[in-house]
């Protein structure tokens, strides 16, 4: 399933595509919001692994604007239940069911069908 937590780690791996290959851009997506039990300790531990600017940019591109533009700097806000619940929603409950992800660098399209991204490359696209 493509959730924003997964999307935040995906880059284009087409041979010689090394510029503007992250984040992949969602296009023509169908979203589904699926409530999930929040594990706020997990979310809190995951924060350092996030590419915040990419997450916010991607969330906004699909109409989700609940996250602040900049990652909060103060520990109290980062650990507040309100902030962690919003982050949980964006990372874990928004599912991209259909559509595609496009690389800004080389234009390669990664289709998404029934929530599964096809990240496979043709042999000529694979770097050696």
How would you sum up this structure, described in words?
One of its GO terms (molecular function) is protein heterodimerization activity. One of its GO terms (biological process) is rRNA (guanine-N7)-methylation. Belongs to the TRM112 family. Interacts with TRM9. InterPro entries: Trm112, Trm112-like. The chain is of the alpha+beta class. The chain has a single domain, classed as N-terminal domain of TfIIb. Helix content is 30%, strand content 21%. The chain contains five helices and five strands; from the N terminus they run βαβααααβββ. Strands 1, 2, 3, 4 and 5 form a five-stranded antiparallel β-sheet that branches. A hairpin with a 2-residue loop joins strand 4 and strand 5. The radius of gyration is 15 Å and the shape is globular.
SSE class: alpha+beta
Q: Regarding CATH, which class?
A: Mainly Beta
For this structure, the CATH topology is N-terminal domain of TfIIb
- Overall outline: globular
Average pLDDT, all residues:
95
Secondary-structure element pattern, one letter each: EHEHHHHEEE
Computed CA radius of gyration, to the nearest angstrom: 15 Å
The number of distinct helices, counting runs of at least 4 residues, comes to 5
CATH architecture grouping: Single Sheet
The N- and C-terminal alpha carbons lie at a distance of: 28 Å
Query: What is the number of E strands?
Result: 5
Strand content: 15-25%
Q: Tell me about the biggest sheet?
A: 5 strands, antiparallel
Helix content: 25-40%
Domains, number: 1
Poorly predicted sequence stretches spanning 5 or more consecutive residues: none
Family: Belongs to the TRM112 family.
GO molecular function: protein heterodimerization activity
InterPro entries: Trm112, Trm112-like
Protein name: Multifunctional methyltransferase subunit TRM112
């Amino acid at each position: 399933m493509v959730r924003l937590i997964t999307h935040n780690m995906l880059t284009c791996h087409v041979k010689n595509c090394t510029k503007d290959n992250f984040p992949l851009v969602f296009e023509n997506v169908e979203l589904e919001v699926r409530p999930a039990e929040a594990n706020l300790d997990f979310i809190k531990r995951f924060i350092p692994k996030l590419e915040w600017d990419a997450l916010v940019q991607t969330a906004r591109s699909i109409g989700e604007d609940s996250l602040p533009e900049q990652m909060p700097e103060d520990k109290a806000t980062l650990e507040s239940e309100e902030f962690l619940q919003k982050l949980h929603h964006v990372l874990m409950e928004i599912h991209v069911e259909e559509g595609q992800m496009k690389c800004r660098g080389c234009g390669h399209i990664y289709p998404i069908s029934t929530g599964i991204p096809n990240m496979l490359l043709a042999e000529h696209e694979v770097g050696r």
